[in-house]
């Protein structure tokens, strides 16, 4: 969060490290500049500061857009507050919206995960029990029928087995399976998924691997991380054009990424970032608000469970998944904890 303090005459008397990043100027250069040198004179920020200078107290406003020669257009949540111990000084904090939005989105995923967990438990309970009865009955019948009819009883057995498997797959959404987490080299996971994709559903796609070789291990479950990246890469393959399709798999260590996790009251540090970027048409506008919800799909034969599963597994890993999407550039970023950290 960027913090500036404007002195009684409007000149900056304090700026934090984030302000250096935002205004792309060193702290010593920021201090002594007038607020109107940093943000346009007609900006909401100036009027908020003026109002607090006049009336005291504090005022916040959400979604204030700011764009200057130094700052690419972004939206901020702004809080201007008087500092009674320093008369005439106003503290201004700017919180870039994208981070606030990420947290909002994460909360939305958690809701989706909960609803699908409840549904999966119900399904498993209501569907699996009668299935074993049906299978048992078919096996009994099998003994007394001729060869021709035996093909039919076998069909019943095979199909009930298949439905059982499907239900088991759904059951992963239910919160009962204990997960075994270990130190995982995420590059091995990505290589494995890349190989599956390049030999199958992603044969038409050019893959670019952009790995940070010094990336520490992730704390996680290999099989589940494979599922996460298989789903993300499959979606990307389905999104890219049949000619010129490109998917970039990147990993990076990001020092500063901390997230507030709802219900935990503290922030977690998620320094490992794995992203899957594609040059397809982007997520259709009508589902951009909730692509992680179960059964949300734009594909004729899609189940809409891929991203719900991704959200569920990433959240079980104590991580966060978010996306940005516009035509020709869609990126899903998975932020994960390091293996030396304890997972709660
Ligand atoms: N990389 C992407 N580019 C464009 N749209 C995407 C991308 N990833 C997901 N989507 C959109 O989000 C929807 C939901 O994705 P999700 O993986 O949950 O389900 P699905 O792919 O439709 O079905 P399934 O994964 O079960 O085959 C997709 O139908 C698609 O519209
Ligand atoms: Mg999918």
Structure description:
- The longest helix is centred in the middle third of the chain and has 47 residues, at 97-143.
- It contains 9 helices and 14 strands.
- By secondary structure, the chain is α+β, with helices and mostly antiparallel strands.
- Helix content is 41%, strand content 24%.
- The chain binds adenosine-5'-triphosphate and magnesium ion.
- Adenosine-5'-triphosphate is lined by residues 231, 235-236, 239, 278, 280, 282-284, 287, 291, 296-299, 302-308, 330.
Which strand-content bin applies to the residues? 15-25%
Assembly context of the chains: single chain
Helix content: 40-55%
Distinct small molecules bound, one entry per kind: adenosine-5'-triphosphate, magnesium ion
Between the first and last Cα atoms, what is the distance in angstroms?
26 Å
Total strands: the figure is 14
Low-confidence region ranges: none
Question: Main traits of this protein?
Answer:
single chain, 5-stranded antiparallel sheet, 14 strands, elongated, binds adenosine-5'-triphosphate, binds magnesium ion
């Amino acid at each position: 969060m960027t913090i500036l303090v404007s002195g009684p005459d409007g000149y900056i008397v304090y700026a934090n490290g984030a302000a250096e990043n935002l205004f792309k100027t060193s702290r010593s250069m920021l201090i002594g500049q007038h607020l109107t040198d940093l943000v346009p004179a007609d900006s909401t920020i100036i009027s908020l500061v003026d109002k607090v200078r006049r009336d005291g107290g504090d005022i916040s406003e959400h979604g204030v857009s700011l764009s200057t020669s130094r700052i690419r257009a972004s939206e901020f949540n702004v809080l201007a507050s008087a500092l009674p111990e320093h008369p005439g000084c106003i503290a201004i904090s700017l919180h870039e919206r994208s981070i606030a939005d990420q947290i909002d989105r994460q909360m939305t995923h958690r809701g989706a995960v909960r609803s699908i967990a409840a549904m999966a438990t119900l399904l498993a309970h209501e569907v699996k029990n009668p299935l074993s009865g049906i299978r048992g009955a078919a096996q009994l019948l099998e003994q007394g029928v001729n060869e021709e009819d035996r093909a039919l009883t076998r069909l019943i057995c095979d199909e009930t087995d298949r439905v059982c498997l499907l239900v088991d797959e759904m059951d992963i959404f239910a919160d009962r399976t204990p997960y075994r987490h270990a130190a995982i080299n995420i590059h091995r996971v990505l290589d494995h998924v890349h190989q599956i994709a390049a030999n199958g559903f992603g044969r038409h796609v050019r893959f670019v691997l952009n790995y940070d070789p010094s990336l520490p291990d992730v704390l996680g479950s290999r099989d589940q991380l494979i599922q996460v990246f298989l789903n993300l890469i499959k979606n990307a393959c389905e999104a890219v054009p049949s000619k010129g399709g490109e998917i970039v798999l990147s990993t990076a260590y990001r020092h500063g990424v901390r997230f507030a996790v709802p219900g935990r009251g503290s922030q977690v540090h998620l320094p490992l970032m794995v992203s899957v970027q594609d040059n397809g048409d982007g997520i259709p506008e009508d589902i951009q608000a909730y692509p992680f919800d179960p059964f949300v799909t734009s594909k004729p034969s899609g189940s809409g469970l891929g991203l719900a599963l991704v959200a569920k597994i990433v959240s079980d890993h104590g991580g966060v998944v978010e996306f940005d999407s516009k035509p020709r550039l869609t990126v899903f970023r998975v932020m994960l904890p390091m293996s030396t950290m304890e997972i709660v």
